[in-house]
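seq/struct pair 1
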Amino acid sequence: MITASHNPAADNGYKLYWSNGCQIIAPHDRKISQHIMNNLELWDVNGKEENLENVLEIIQSEYEGKLNGIIKELFPSPPTRFLQVVYTPVHGVGQRYVDSVISSIGLPPLLKVESQCNPDPLFPTVKFPNPEEGPDVYNEAFGVAHSKSAQYVMANDPDADRFSFAEWNAVEKRYRIFNGNEIGILFAYFLRSCTVGPLAMINTHVSSQFLSSFAQHNNIYLISTHTGFKNLGNKAIELEKEGHRVIFAYEEAIGFMIGGLVHDKDGISALAVFLSWLNRTDKLCSEILADLYDKYGHFVCYNGYVPCCELALKERIFKKLGQLEAPVNLAGYTINIITMYEDAPLMAKLQLKDCQVIFRCSGTEPKLKYYSEGKDKNVSELIKMCNEMSNELLKL
């Protein structure tokens, strides 16, 4: 699949999938890379165009049919309301597919953001076209939502494999953007509510610990993997072969896999299933989330990143962390346990008395990312801690 997603068009990226429908993992990645290096001369395809087949329509029809089946199984009763919802693909490819899917499952059209509904690799209305980046990406959609008094705003990233949404807060008179962990919690809650029997779910090592607490009380087998849907998707296939019903997988970077439709994150099906649920509940997402926190624990998360371009610096940071002996002081904070990951050398978990923070280097962007969480913590404390620790690590 050719895609640079929310990265600059010059990245000219692509994703490679194996025959099982998942992104490639070892040893396939190394073998494919070697085949590429052994075949650097361009093929002559002139006059062979008739051998090419466009399977997009076939795939789309089959995809929508299976998605319809999943939604009907989850929600056998008809919607109790039809919400006003604004949708933006953020200058990506999502609009035509969301329009088609929403129509196929019998919901009314979503309100368009005309300034962002067509693909444009220059992303002219945003600084960075990833809904994870917050209000800047949503500004155009919020304008439409205000004018139409819409309760919800939904977004995909440019290649439509991520899903995000915001909800109108009548008290604060603003739209609240939900982060990936909060959306994951809501998915887990209603997917468990809509199904009977034992289920399996998957998240990542840097996802919120809330799902672990929720799973223990709700007949859910939960397993965590390293980040990246190449890991979650292949783990889902492995669990399915063992007889588990894997209904959900997610990572905090607003990536969601629903019901085994595909073994990859998919923003289109995530939007369709989430909207189908919203049209069948009379409570706000913020209210449901608050109830869940009261019942299973107030897990407070703060995630972010600092720019980190030099590979040598990244390697030096994690080599130094691996040499530290806990308990140890870092930027004024006492670290009680340091966990290094042999199969992810640029990643470390630091555990403090009442919270933890995981540092890892992005595999696709020049960033040192951090994922912090504490039970019953103040988010301002986590922000301060992450900023001070990150700055200290960059000095190593």
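seq/struct pair 2
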Amino acid sequence: MVFTTPKEMDRAYDAERLRWLRRRFVVYAWISIAINGLGLLTSVLTLVMLAFGAVFDVTDQPALNTPLFWASQILTLGVVIGVFVWAIYWVRRNKPDRAQTIRLIYGLFVGTHLLEMVHLFLIGLSNDPGHAIGAGHLQAQTSLFISHLFAAIIIPWSVREAVRPLLPLLFVHTIIIALFSSESIGNRIGDLIVLWLIGLPGVTVCWVKQARFHRKFQFRSFRDAYRYATREVEQARALHESFFPAPIADGQLRLDYYYQPMSQLGGDYLHACLTMDGDGRPASLLCAVIDVTGHGLSATLTANHLHALLKRQTQSGRLPDPGELIAELNRYMHESFSGLSVFATAVVMRLDLAEQRVVWSSAGHPPAFLVGEGHCEPALESTACILGALEPESFHPGVRELPLSENISIIAYTDGASELPLAGGGMLGINGLAERVGALSASGGLKTERLMRSLAEMTTGERQDDILLVQLDMKPDAASTVPDAVVQAERETTRVPADPAAV
């Protein structure tokens, strides 16, 4: 069970304690019925034996040879059994609250012990009328100790609840010791000390049981909350990553990327949309790389909002101008999140195959790289400030374009990649990242997964932010056939390993 407020947790805790108390009371009652039933059976057999002339050798307790004694014993035990049977029925039918159940237990405990004391008094009156009260006092104390310890072992009392039923009985025994004991003053004081410590074992048992119950409840609550949170985070990550496009591995316009959030959830997002010309061949590829400030659940929720906006802007089939899209993203961020101090950086790039150019607009995003012929340079610089910082009227996105020659790749990334800590100290930086990209390009194996593996080898692996690496390629001479699934604006999730070193 998962609790959203402390009050809910308190109510659940009290409800579970109540269910525990009711179950254990029924057990306590049935055991008491069994014990008293055994005594009742013994008394009935003894009474039958006396009726047939049997005599017991009990010179110090002649009352045991009288049918009246055993008849009273049978009556007493029958009353006790009847009361416990009624108590079980009442609890199961009425479902009492904790206070009512505790009062019922108190009544049964105190009542049965007082009844036993009266019975022992009658035995003493039959055996020694001059010392009837004091004769059975030691037996009554022993019975009180056993009864209380037995109840404490079975019934989940709190410490206070374990003490309360003892108090009236201890006062009764104190009066008996003070007024009717034939012992000396010193022995009486010793008896009183022993008497008032008689409930200590039972109280200790109750304290241990309650502490254990509390720990188990807390552990179970935290475990359930953790499982619930983990399940929710996994579902949130699956939903977030389902918005990412599928890589385009073939054709004249290609897309590849690697995404790894810092924790389970991240605020980086990639949106891509491919349009076709009249002959069904790729014409343009629009790609938006977004990095919401921070990471975790809040960043993911913000990125998902931006996904919905981008989907609306591109689902008509017409690719908007990168500057228009950046301006719309800024308007939405400012109106929705500026009061929460949530911002984002973004770069929107459009690759036009016919013109062999890239048109882009960048809002405070790290410069994307142009990669080719073994060299890499930051070329797609920022053209505006970060999203959400300025009102729409004051925001000017800026749009630029560059021609692209054959076999030129564009590497876009979020700042989590350039801020990776180096093993020798410091951060990788934009220039360090450009060097690694150029080195991989020179070896003829530039892929985002390979790039991430290379970065993991030269850094400590202790990431401070989400990482998103995006690679765009224009291959005019490649086959122009593209699977139908590629032209969809939204595609199924690309799964990535949890550990960059495992790529």
